[in-house]
Amino acid sequence: MKQTMIVAAIVVALALAGAATVWFWLGQDPTASFTVFEPGMDGRAAALTNVPRVVIGEFFTNLGGKAETDISGSWPRFRGPHADNSAADSGRLADSWPKGGPRVLWSLDLGEGHAGPAVANGRVYVLDYDEAKKSDALRCFSLGTGAELWRRWYRTNLKRNHGFSRTVPAVSSNYVVTIGPNCQVMCVKADSGEFVWGIDLVREYGTKVPGWYTGQCPLIDNGLAIIAPAGSNTLMIAVECATGKVVWHTPNPRAWPMSHSSIMPVTLGGVRMFVYAASGGLAGIAADGPRRGMILWETNAFNHAVVAPSPVCMPDGKVFIAAGYAAGGMMLEVRMTNGGYTVAVLETLPPGKGLATEQQTPVFLNGLLYAVMPKDGGQHRNEFVCCAPDTCGTFVWTSGTGARFGLGPYIAADGKLFILDDEGELTMVRASAERWEPLGRAHVLAGKEAWGPMAIVSGRLLARDEKRMVCLDISAQ
Predict the structure, then answer these.
(1) Which of 370, 333, 365 is nearest to 355 (CA)?
(2) What is the pTM of this model?
C-alpha cells in the first residue's frame, strides 16, 4: 500500500509539471491492489436492466456443403496470422494481371456492411447482418467454392449507419469468436457452429456502443478470447474459449470508452502484452505471467474521441497511432526501465504534416510504414505513402496526385501491396523502398464503400464492398 501511494505521488507530481500526458509504473502497477484479479472476480457491472436482453447464438441453420480442408494457409483474425496485415505464407503471386483483372473464383451477396473475413481450415467466416431478420449472423462458407455451410445467428435491432457489421472474427483450431455491432460477443465451435457462450458487453460491463457501431475485432490468444469492453469498471478481459469463464480482467481507472480500434498483440523487451487504443489513450496490458491482465503502461498523449486505426507496434518499442477528423498521427516509444515502463512521444504529426490515416491501419513491412493519407492530409491527401518510422513527417515516396485512394483497405503479400479504393478498384504495387511502382489495376467490385479488411490465403484474395464479397485468384500461373 505504501509503495502504491509513492507511485501515485510521483504521477501527481508529473502532472503538475505539465507531463500529465504520460504515466509510468516503476515495477508496480498502481491498480494491483484491486481484488478484481482474484479468481472468480471478473469486474462485471450489475446487469443494466434498461438494455434489452439479447439471446446470443439462439438460432442455427445448417446449409450443407463441405469445406475444402486440404487448402493450406489461414487468415485467422484481423490483420492476419501475425497481426501485421501481411500474408507471409501466401505463396508466389502474379506480378501482373490480364486485361480483365485477376480471375474471380467465386462471389456472394452479403448484408450491408464492412465486416472482413477470417479464414481457417478451408472455411471462410464472416459476421453479417440480416436486415430482414434484424439479426447478427456468423456465416461459414467454403473457401474453395463460396458455398455457405452454416450460420449461427441471433436477433438484435439495428438502424443503418454506413452499413451494419464491420468486424473480423477470430478463429483458433477449435473456436470462432465474434463481436457484433451492438457489442455482443459470441463463441462457437469452428467446424460445426455449435454455440459455446455469449457475453453482452453493454449489459454486463456497461460498455457504450461507439458511433458507427463496434469496430473492435476480437483476438484469440492461447485459448483465450481477448476483448476490450472499455466499460464502467473494466478495460480488458480474457475469456476462456472452451468455457466462457473470465480468467482475468483489467480495471479501467481512467474510464476510457471503447473506440473502433482493435487490440494488438506484441512482445516488447521480451514481455508479451496487448496494446489497445481506447477513446482517451493507449495502454499495454500484460498477456501472461504473474502480472497478466495488469496495466504495464498507459498514456493519454494521443487522446481523441474517434479512433479507428489500431496501434502499429514495432519490434524496437515504437508504437504508431493515428486517427481521422483532424487527429493526425503520433509516434511513441515504450521503454523498459528498472522493471517498469516509460512512454515517450517521439513525433507529433498534425493534420497535413506527416503520416496519418483515418480508417485503416498502416502496414509495417521491411522497416517501412505504408498507408493511405486521410482527406485532411494536405497536399498528399488520399495518396498512398511510404515513410521511415524515424521520420514520419517526410515521405520516402507517394503515389502522387494521379493515384488517390479513399477509406478502403490495403494488405501485403509476396513483396507486393494490394490497395482497394472506395469504388472497388484494386491496385497492385511493388513494396518498394525507393518509389511508387504500380504493377496492375482492375475493378473487382461494382459497389461502393469497399472498406472491409481484405484477406490473402493460398494465392486467393478475398475482398468486399458494401454488399458483395469476391474471391480472386492472384497466384502466379
Answers:
(1) 370
(2) 0.90
